[in-house]
């Protein structure tokens, strides 16, 4: 199967299935002599792991990471780093009733048409379980970026309910199970998702990722633009159906003078008076915050019966039992952060190789 690797100089390959014995990732291109231990990676995996609230799947996985190669005496060696996360709470029996039926909105049908076989145990490689490997890779990417680059994510909409941006408080995301920067909206989301979950349904979401401290100059015109690579990275996350940078689609309704990020001088430094570009111009970082948003569709595995077909072409109904996220967007926040970190680390290494700078 092609398409399991991502990146140019900082490059990772994920492996494993949702209900197989383990999942993991091989990360290549990491410079030598970087401090790296399992706790450095574990802290980010703990933010993504399932079963932390009633609003996520109740699958109980500790997501404990093991470093198998590429690290010696607590520092990277410059060789490929292999990480493994064992699956300890596998329940393939939960999926036997859909072994020959395709979940509408899921990759079941397309995997079957492409390969002639599919892993019905949670979706195999199409499962959100795969994203734990990305988060592990992202932890290493953050090491390359260093403490000067800060990447934070927040949930800004669940279903039809967006946050009040005037109430944005980064501190609030630590005080609710939704990564929500609007404390009042977090309470409303709780009631909304309780209703959705009890109805056997699911909801979509919008996640915003902000990267601060990114130096200007990252990105490669014309086909390896930084915003293009970020969009591709975020679109590879399971269930993502749309990505925007900066003002995104709302820029289409602005006039030129409103959309333009005007500039002034602060001493010998150029400053921007707004950030509709999302920190990227011409595919190259400006030094402002990089801002990206992505939309996640409602979880496909739901209890409500839906019309579908089976492998023999019969028209049937399907209801998916087992443990599923009523809103997969909640656990997509640390995944989005990880993918942004991986893209920025890759472009930082590419910029150094090209210019010797930063």
Explain this structure to me?
- The protein is α+β, with helices and mostly antiparallel strands.
- It has 7 helices and 18 strands.
- A hairpin with a 2-residue loop joins strand 5 (71-72) and strand 6 (75-76).
- Helix 3 (131-145) packs across helix 7 (332-355).
- The longest helix is centred in the last third of the chain and has 24 residues, at 332-355.
- The model has no long low-confidence stretch (mean pLDDT 92).
Provide the fold topology.
Blueprint: E1 5-6, E2 11-16, E3 22-28, H1 38-48, E4 65-69, E5 71-72, E6 75-76, E7 81-86, H2 108-115, H3 131-145, E8 150-158, E9 161-162, H4 183-198, E10 205-212, H5 226-235, E11 240-245, H6 256-259, E12 263-266, E13 269-272, E14 280-281, E15 284-285, E16 290-296, E17 306-309, E18 315-318, H7 332-355
Antiparallel strand pairs: 1-2, 2-3, 3-7, 4-7, 5-6, 8-9, 8-10, 10-16, 11-16, 12-13, 14-15, 17-18
Helix pairs in contact: 1-3, 1-7, 3-7, 5-7
Summarize it.
With 358 residues, this protein is an alpha+beta fold. The protein contains 7 helices and 18 strands. The strands form 6 sheets. The chain has a 5-stranded antiparallel beta sheet, with helices on one face.
What is the helical fraction, as a range of percent? Answer: 10-25%
| Shape by Cα distribution | globular
Terminus-to-terminus distance: 37 Å
Average pLDDT metric: 92
């Amino acid at each position: 199967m092609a398409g399991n690797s991502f990146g140019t100089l900082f490059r990772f390959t994920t492996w494993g299935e949702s209900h197989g014995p383990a999942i993991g990732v091989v990360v290549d291109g990491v410079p030598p002599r970087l401090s790296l231990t399992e706790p450095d990676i574990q802290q980010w995996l703990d933010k993504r792991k399932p079963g932390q609230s009633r609003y996520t799947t109740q699958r109980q996985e500790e997501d404990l990471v093991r470093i198998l190669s590429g690290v010696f005496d607590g520092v990277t060696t410059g060789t490929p780093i292999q990480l493994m996360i064992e699956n300890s709470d596998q329940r393939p029996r939960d999926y036997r009733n859909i072994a020959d039926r395709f979940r509408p909105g899921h990759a079941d049908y397309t995997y079957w048409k492409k390969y002639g076989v599919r892993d019905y145990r949670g979706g195999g490689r199409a499962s959100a379980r795969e994203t734990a490997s990305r988060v592990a890779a992202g932890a290493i990417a953050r090491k390359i970026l260093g403490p000067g680059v800060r990447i934070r994510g927040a949930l800004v909409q669940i279903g039809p309910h967006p946050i009040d941006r005037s109430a944005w408080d980064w501190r609030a995301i630590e005080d609710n199970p939704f990564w929500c920067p609007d404390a009042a909206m977090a309470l409303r989301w709780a009631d909304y998702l309780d209703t959705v979950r009890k109805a056997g349904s699911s909801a979509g979401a919008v996640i915003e990722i902000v990267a601060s401290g990114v130096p200007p100059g990252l990105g490669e015109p014309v086909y390896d633009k930084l915003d293009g690579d970020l969009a591709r990275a975020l679109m590879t996350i399971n269930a993502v159906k749309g990505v925007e940078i900066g003002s995104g689609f709302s820029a289409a309704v602005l006039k030129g003078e409103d959309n333009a990020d005007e500039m002034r001088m602060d001493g010998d430094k150029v400053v921007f008076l707004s950030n509709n570009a999302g920190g990227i111009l011409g595919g190259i970082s400006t030094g402002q915050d990089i801002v990206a948003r992505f939309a996640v569709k409602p979880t496909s595995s739901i209890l409500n019966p839906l019309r579908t077909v089976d492998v023999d072409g019969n028209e049937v109904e399907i209801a998916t039992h087992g443990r599923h996220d009523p809103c997969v967007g909640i656990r997509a926040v640390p995944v989005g952060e990880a993918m942004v970190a991986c893209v920025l680390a890759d472009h930082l290494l590419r910029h150094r190789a090209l210019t010797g700078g930063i």
